[in-house]
Design brief:
The chain has 9 helices and 13 strands. By secondary structure, the chain is an alpha+beta fold. The longest helix is centred in the middle third of the chain and has 25 residues. About 2% of the residues have low confidence.
């Protein structure tokens, strides 16, 4: 590694592009660099323009203004690449935890934020008015990292859950799945359309036959009946003005669940802030099936009833929501992010108060009925 009188640390070569193929055993991993070499052309350009590269490296605002005033930096690929590397190194001066990596392009990042340097260079020249939003992003970056660390610590918590499961397992009714055809009359084999490969780009914006999820409504009916049979829970069944079917389950203990069903999806609301759509996406690329959606609903609802729902809010300064679902068979998943934006500040405060009274955010299991009719 070399050193520089411009940046406060050793210089390393640009990391290699990350490969999707892992070779084992492989060489010892190399720590990603904080500063990379190859910015000398930009430093020379700055000096010729009357600027001190060391001063630009220490003042990202001044560097932004300098780059914005010199669009000719994009004229030659070599100069543009040198400017990109200088910019990335300057970001690492501001945020010492940031490191270089090369995925599809060079970028400076932590686990929470990534800045592609080529896009940044072009963005400064084409949109210099974005200087203040970029500065605000950099100022909030350390807190974003701390929030992410706090959230990650929650994900790795070890906990023993006293699951309460029904004496008779839920049995899914047989799904009657009709055939669906494409515009050429060929049968569409949902769930295996892409044969393990990548879907075409237009599949991400295309939705065909969302009505293929309609059979799931029968599964929801059976699931609600099962829960009502075995757990001490009141069920309110109704439809709204749009025709959506709503099933509100109010247990004597544990998290309430509301299921809003249409022929195309089921919206699950549970506990204080948990929100989930099944399927989460109906686009052709995701290639969901009625069976996979039924799996998702059953896993979620049965886990919540058994005592496997955790909600922690607020997490960190950005007031994230952390949710976990654990299943009696040892499975589980977790997530985090901003709560439902439609919720008011008062509703969020009430949720925080409610969840703060739960042990580490874990909802208790529903209570089994004492006797069966």
């Amino acid at each position: 590694m070399s050193t520089s009188n411009i940046f406060p640390g050793a210089l390393a070569p640009m990391p290699d592009a990350m490969s999707a193929t892992l070779i084992w055993p492989g060489p010892e991993p190399v720590a990603p660099p904080r500063f990379v070499e190859g910015f000398e052309l930009f430093a020379a350009f700055a000096r010729e323009a009357g600027a001190d590269p060391a001063a630009l490296a220490a003042d990202l605002g001044a560097l932004w203004d300098f780059v914005a005033a010199h669009p000719e930096l994009l004229a030659a690929p070599e100069t543009a690449e040198a400017a990109e590397r200088f910019l990335g190194n300057a970001i690492a001066v501001v945020h010492p935890a940031a490191r270089w990596r090369f995925t599809s392009e060079p970028e400076v990042c932590t686990s929470t934020i990534s800045v592609p340097v080529a896009g940044l260079l072009r963005g400064i020249i084409e949109h210099p008015e974005q200087r203040e939003p970029f500065r605000e992003m950099l100022a909030s970056w350390p807190q974003a990292d701390r929030d992410a660390e706090e959230h990650a610590a929650l994900t790795h918590d070890e906990v023993d859950i006293d699951f309460v499961v029904t004496p008779v397992p839920f049995t899914r009714p047989v799904l009657s799945i009709p055939e669906f055809v494409d515009e050429s009359g060929h049968v569409i084999h949902y769930g295996s359309r892409w044969a393990g490969g990548s879907p075409p780009e237009d599949a991400y914006s295309r939705v065909t036959h969302p009505e293929r999820f309609a059979p799931v409504m029968g599964v929801v009916d059976a699931l609600v009946d099962h829960l009502e049979t075995w757990y001490d829970v009141d069920v309110d069944r109704r439809s709204d003005e749009s025709g959506a079917r709503i099933r509100h389950l109010r247990p004597t203990t544990g998290a309430q669940i509301t299921l809003t069903e249409t022929a195309e999806s089921v919206f699950i609301q549970a506990g204080a802030l948990t929100r989930e759509y099944a399927p989460s996406c109906t686009c052709d690329a995701c290639d969901e099936t009625a069976e996979s959606v039924a799996d998702q609903i059953e896993e979620t609802v049965l886990a919540i009833a058994a005592g496997g729902l955790r909600e922690v809010y607020p997490v960190g300064q950005r007031r994230w929501l952390h949710t976990e679902r654990r299943t009696p068979d040892g499975g589980g998943r977790s997530g985090g992010g901003q709560p439902d934006p439609s919720l008011s500040a008062d509703e969020l405060d009430d949720a925080a108060d409610l969840l703060g009274r739960l042990p580490d955010g874990w909802w208790p299991a529903w209570t089994l009925r004492s006797a069966q009719s």
